[in-house]
Each structure stands twice: as structure tokens, then as C-alpha cells.
Specification:
Layout: E1 15-21, H1 29-40, E2 44-50, H2 56-65, E3 70-73, E4 87-88, H3 90-95, E5 100-104, E6 107-111, H4 114-126, E7 134-138, H5 142-154, E8 158-163, H6 166-179, E9 184-189, H7 193-200, E10 205-208, E11 232-235, H8 242-249, E12 253-255, H9 258-273, H10 279-293
Parallel strand pairs: 1-2, 1-3, 4-6, 7-8, 7-10, 8-9, 10-11, 11-12
Antiparallel strand pairs: 3-5, 5-6
The structure holds 2'-monophosphoadenosine-5'-diphosphate.
Length: about 290
Amino acid sequence: MVAGEVGRPGIRGPGKYALLGFPVRHSVSPQMQGAAFRWAGIPASYELIEVPPDQLGAVVARLRDQAYAGWNVTVPHKENVLNCVDEVTPEARAAGSVNTVVNRDGILRGHSTDGYGLEAAVRESFGLDVPGRRFLFVGAGGAARATAVWFAQLGAAEVRIVNRTLGKAERIAERIRAVAPGCTVRCVAGAEPAGVVSALSGVDVVIQATSLGLHADDPLPLDVALLLPGMAVMDMIYRRTPFLLEAARRGCRIADGRGMLLHQGARSFELWTGCSAPVAEMRAGLEAAVAARA
Ligand code: ATR
């Protein structure tokens, strides 16, 4: 390539990008990343690729062969993709999750930007930095694990996890104790109201990380009557869920998952291009795509 072919000299990153998931049709990542590439003057495409679980390895091999510059990975592949890349950052290894792959000359490196995305969203929405703070995660699936482990490593004073299945919360707790021994961690079964009340006591932010709220007939992930006015409550789902609306009715400060989506994507863009992410442009792309769906 001739120097200067790319809009801004010294910026890497032209090429093909994608999001791998199942399903991914609903994703607004193409609009968000498209806005960033356009702003940076980087010629790039960003496709949605539906990848059934048994085809992940084959699709990753194809993207490597076809010299895709990088891709995002979403549900249900964030864990399994660790086995399909050549290198994994220590943070992603600890989180047990990869959502961003960078392809440098055929060497695939897996990163996790979800924890960073949530960290930035919590700062933006509630003015709070993670170190020294107490967080309650509701849920113990892949999303909760990746972010709770990240928060513990960042220096959160305490991570509490409420989940329907206590054993899954305890597995995250074991990982946190292994990688961040300075962080206090406590697990509570969702069906024990007294335990949930105690887990809510003194927390700085409640983070809803279950899949509940995606479907109209889902139950609430937590008894909202236990939330106190003034509490900061964030939901990882990208819109105002019934849980968030109930929390707002109880006087909580609320934020949905768009902030996390935006900032995890901004970090992916930076890893691919080495260029500071144009967060305002990416937010506008994301909001326009979300509005077009409504
Ligand atoms: P993700 O990767 O998006 O986090 P996941 O790994 O399937 O998805 O995790 C889903 C989370 O939602 C889990 O915490 C799950 O609770 P269990 O660990 O007990 O399965 C939670 N969840 C899903 N449906 C639920 C329900 N009906 N009631 C309570 N929790 C539920």
C-alpha cells in the first residue's frame, strides 16, 4: 500500500471487520463501528456473521484466511473463541472471555473489552471509579463473569454476586479470589430475600447482568422492593427494561446497557486501529441505529 492511501498517515486498520454471534441480526455494532471508521478516514467494512455454535472454529479459520483485520465476538461464542486464537491477553484469560480479536499478519490475539466498557459506563453514568467501591452483580453467566473479574482486578473493594444458581456465582468467586485476592467476594442465592437484602446493603452500584428483560414475559431478576431510593442501578441490556423502570419508580438512579456497549466498542476500535476512538460519533451511530429499531 502506498503511504497516504489511508486518510490519516500512521493509522493502521483498513480492511474487513465483523461481529460473530448467534443470533447477531439485531446488532447495532455495524452502525457504531461504521461511524468510527468513517470519522477516522479508514476504509473498512463491518459485517454481521451468524455463526452456529459448531461452526465457530471453521468461521475463525476462514476469516484468518481471508485476512479480516479483526472482529468482535458475542453470545454464545465469547468463551469458546479462546480456543480458536493464538494469543489471549492476561485480562481476557482471567475473565475467561474474548469479545475482540485482532489479526496481525495471521496471528490472532484475543482481548476482552466488556469489563472496560462497563467500567467506563459506570463512570459516565454515575460518576464513580471502580477502585475501592462495592458492586453487586445480579447474574452469574458469561457477561457477569467477564465484568466482575475485571472489576475485582481493577481494585473494587468488594464484589457481591446474586444468582438463581448459587454454584455458578461461586465459580466466579473462586476465579476472583485467584486473580484478585484483595477483593472481598460474597455470593448469595437469588431465592433468599434476607441474603439479597444484606447483599444490597452499602453497595455503590447494582449491575443487572442476567438475560432477564430481553423478553416481554420475563420475570424481574431481583425483587425491586428491596432497592432503596438513590441507589445506582445499571442494566447490561441495551434498553430500559421493566427492572430499570421499576428501579426508577423507586427513586434509584438508572442507566441501561448502551453505555457499556458504546465503550466496549470504542476500546475494540482502538485495539484494531491504534487510534483514539471518536466516542461522540460512535454514540451517535449507536443511538441512530437503536432509534431506527424502535
Ligand atoms: P450471558 O453469557 O449473556 O451472561 P448466560 O451465561 O446464559 O448468558 O447467563 C444467563 C444469566 O441469567 C444467568 O445468571 C442465569 O441464571 P442461572 O445461572 O441460574 O441460570 C440468569 N437467568 C436466566 N434466566 C433466569 C431466570 N428465569 N431466573 C433467574 N435467573 C435467570
